[in-house]
Each structure stands twice: as structure tokens, then as C-alpha cells.
């Protein structure tokens, strides 16, 4: 019975920190978990991960039944626990692209991360701005992106008997309603009726199941005051019965479950049912045919192809909220000229890869600085994008006299939130981190000011917006900062759209389209679009510029700035 219980769920695990070949063999471990920040050693290479995982797997294979284990990790925006892996935009950024193809492609490259065996997707609707890390507030878009991800991951393990060594299993979480908790508090209470739960929060899960998602994680949150794990009618009857799906239990209840079975509280056929379901996942993944991680793929981690895809995802995810001091599209600031005498780059997020990547990067709560993984900061991307004759001055928090005493053509201010994950991201005020506000007052009052926000959600920005010439929501873009400069300097146009309504004050929250007093700073779906410089030049010249000498001058300036 212990053997069956050990394999009935891959959350039936020991943590990596206490795992060994002997423990996986002796206790019939069905899964080993690397939580946020849990790695074989600091700056562990892909080879280190493969060696560690294969060691645990060999222990599992040497047990009496020889059932392979699943190695589990929260790969929420790339293989984010692994040093040198490509870090993709967080879910909120992917929601801004409104493109299933982008998320699909990101999911596809996870096949090269075979060492982790397990891939997480999050199919959550966001109904409160205080909650971070969610994909979108439109249930239809979440459904399409989530189910496409499930289908892409599932395709890696088909057909079952010939599943390649790149197979992974997807997980849809957190079932169900986790994105609608009151006040946006993590693992809190979602207060909605059944009709709203099923029509708003459920579609992404049902569609992912149809497309073949391997696992579903039950939410730690509550629905109308009752913990989700206690809803037999939703989990056993609806998820497993109506939707015909397998589901795993809370791993913390393992010891209690043994006692419950021994005392005939939980029938043995329930254990058998769960064991069959998880074994099916392992067969589907091809773990019985190819249980060990593949060393031939270690060089794919952080490859240029992966970074190019991440860069594309970034430039399609950033949202242009303001372009011109007066908001008049006839006097735009972006695209910025590359060739000027001198520019200022400022803000604590401009040269900080950790802030740029956000939580769930190397460590559970993320990190600060540039030494814990590889990538390109926004400052580095700016220096690479501008003309070689343009002087780039970086000062994290300059005083007003410094700004006034220099003849900067413009300033790029990069500010936002510090990294967080889960409950650490709960915020009652949604204010930007210091010294962001002081940078606004010192810089934007004295020079043309382009602000880039690095956040996991909309934050309070209205008090400063009148002093800003251009405003860009870059979300948490990940390791490839060049995606931001691609659109900032006009190599590509802006196309991202807000996945959530941008409020004026936190007193307005929660804010949803259709509310009686709906008065957002920027509405849901808002996003200014721009053309690339080349597209702009081509369109303007083909239309003729004889009657538009001012436009001709602008075109000449843009061409010279390339």
C-alpha cells in the first residue's frame, strides 16, 4: 500500500534538500521537488542538474517495482531555477501580447529542458489588481493561451510508446477561482456565486483538460469561506467526474492518509484510482521508456534561439500608455532618436537584472543585481541600441541640479516594484518602490522624460503622469532587455494591449469593465500602437511628402538616427 501511495501523486515527494538515491529507493518516492531557489549548488550548470536528477531517478528505478519518479519544478517563465537559463516575460506580459503563438513558442522550447520533467502553466483569471503574476482578466484569452500551452506540452509526449526524451507534463493551476480572491490576497477567499465561478474562472481549466493537460493543482484558497480542497462536488464530481480528469491531493496529508486507510476511513479503491491516474501520466511522458535526462540537450539551455524568442516576446508584451507630454499623437516622443549628443538613464531598475526578471527567478522571491544569472539589462540594451556617438550617462537617483546642469536630449527613467512571489506580493497600496517618486521629481521636471515601469501589475502612477512625456508598461520582461529597446527606438512598433484595467487610485479596486463608476486611468485593452521607423518612412514617402514639409523633416531625422 505504501508503494501505491507513493506513486499516487507526484506531490508525494521529499524536497530536493533531503533527497538521495537511498531515500528514493527505500520510500518508493514518486516525485522530488525543487522549490523556488532550490538547486544542486550555487550557479549549478545544466550538467549539474542532469547529474542530480539522474541520480535520484536511478534510486527510484532500483526500488522493487522500478517505477520512475517525476522531477518537479515551478518553471513559470522559463527554466527559472537554473543559472543561465533564458527568463521569459511573466504571465501578465504574455497576456499583453494577446498572441497564442507567442506563448505556444515559449512552451515549445521547454522540450530542451528535459532535466526538469515537469512544466507548470497557470490558467487563472485576474479580478483584482492587488494580485500579481496572473495572465489576463479576459477569460476567453486565458482559455485560448492556457489550452494552447497544454496542447503544445502534451504533443511532446505523443505517441505514448515512443515519447521522446524531451517529454514534459503540464500543470494547470490553481483550481479554481484563485485569481478572484478578495482584496487580491494570496490563498484568500473568492466570493462569487456558482454561475460566476463556472463561467468566468472555469473555462480555461475545462479547455486545457480537453487539450490534454497532464495535471491540475488544487488551490489553497477558499470559495465563499470554504477551502477548495474540501469541495468534493468540484474536485471529485466535477473535475474528475464531469471533466473526466485526474487530480492530486495535498502532499502534506500523506502521513494522515496512511492512518485513514489503515482505519478504513479512506477505501483502498480510492488509493488504487489515484495511483492509476498518476501512472498514466508517467506512461504518457515516456518515463518508463526514457527515464533519464538527456545530456545531449544541456547546451540548449540559454541558447541564442531561446533568447531571440524571449526578446520577441518582450517587444510584443510592452504597452505604450502615453506618447507625448500633452497626449497628442501628432507630437510623439517615441520612437526615440538613436543619434543625439547625450542621454540620461536613471532609476534603480535600469541596471538590475534581478528586478527585471521578478520573482520565481533563481530564488523563490527573486533577487537584486546582475550576478545570479545571465541576460541583458535595460541599460545594457540602451547602450547597444544607440549610435556609437551618443553618450549614455547612468545615474540611479540623480539630484535635480545634476539633471539641470547637463544638456540631456532626453532621459529614460526605469522604476517599478521589487521582486516578489505569492504572499510576499500582497500590497494594500500598490505604490512603486523608492526611490522611484523622487526620480520623477528630480528628472522629469527638468528634461524630456520617458518612463519604463517594471511591475507585475498596474501600480499607482496618476500623481506623476502629467510630468511624464512617454510612459511604457514593460511588466516583468525577463532576461532579454533588448526587447524593450527594439520598440523604444523604433526597430519595431509597439503593439501590446493592457491585460487589466489601470486604475487611478487603489480606492477604486476591485475595478471591472461595466462597473457603475468605471473611471480608469487607462481602460482594459488600451495600448498605443506605433510603426517601426522603416515602416513610418516607407508609408510617408509612398504617400508623398511634398505637401508636408514638417513630416519630411521628421523622416530625415529618423533616418539619420538609425
UniProtKB/TrEMBL annotation:
Alphabetically ordered keywords of this record: Glycosidase, Hydrolase
UniProt cross-references to SUPFAM superfamilies, sorted A to Z: (Trans)glycosidases, Beta-D-glucan exohydrolase, C-terminal domain
GO biological process: glucan catabolic process
Domain Glycoside hydrolase family 3 N-terminal as annotated: residue spans: 23-106, 168-245
Short name of one Pfam family: Glyco_hydro_3
Single GO MF annotation: beta-glucosidase activity
Ranges in coiled-coil conformation: none
Domain of life from the UniProt record: Eukaryota
Glycoside hydrolase family 3 C-terminal domain ranges (all copies): 318-529
PANTHER family in the record: GLYCOSYL HYDROLASE FAMILY PROTEIN, PERIPLASMIC BETA-GLUCOSIDASE-RELATED
Protein name per its UniProtKB record: Glycoside hydrolase family 3 C-terminal domain-containing protein
Organism from which the protein derives: Malus domestica
Lineage of the species this protein comes from: Eukaryota, Viridiplantae, Streptophyta, Embryophyta, Tracheophyta
